[in-house]
Amino acid sequence: MHRNAPLRSPVSAMVLAALMVLGASFAVLANEPMRLPVDPAQLSVLSAEGEVRARFDLEIARTGEQHMRGLMHRTDLPENRAMLFVFEVSGPRAFWMKDTPLPLDIVFAAADGTIVRVARDTVPFSTVPIRSGAPALYVLEVHAGTAETLGIEAGDRLVHPAIGGG
């Protein structure tokens, strides 16, 4: 029998109201930009010859949720700031720009910090996968054009306490 009667239990009504508020909160949080604390140690990018090409202040994404959100919904990133994604296992990586309004350069690095690929000038909001092309344990996101301006390329090395061998 189908009933269209109102909720009779005050407890049921409170549970339903709490679930609605919780659902609305998750929807708002899903679109909120994630801002991680700036790590006290800067990341350096060294050329194959050991020359310092760049130094960045870092936000470090370590958890699965942080990896999923990254720079999504961020409309600002200080000029000398980058986000470093640290994974538990080295492997092929694929990133996308879904819900990311900032154009970025995406730098993929092996377990020892050696850069294996630089994807330059990625397209904001694109869902096309951007692949590492080789196993990577670390991914660095910086403003689009940064890699070209500073000469960052495959074979260079990322150095930071969070990076093996750094």
Automatic annotation (TrEMBL):
One of the Pfam families matching this protein, by short name: DUF192
Organism: Oceaniradius stylonematis
Name of the protein this chain belongs to: DUF192 domain-containing protein
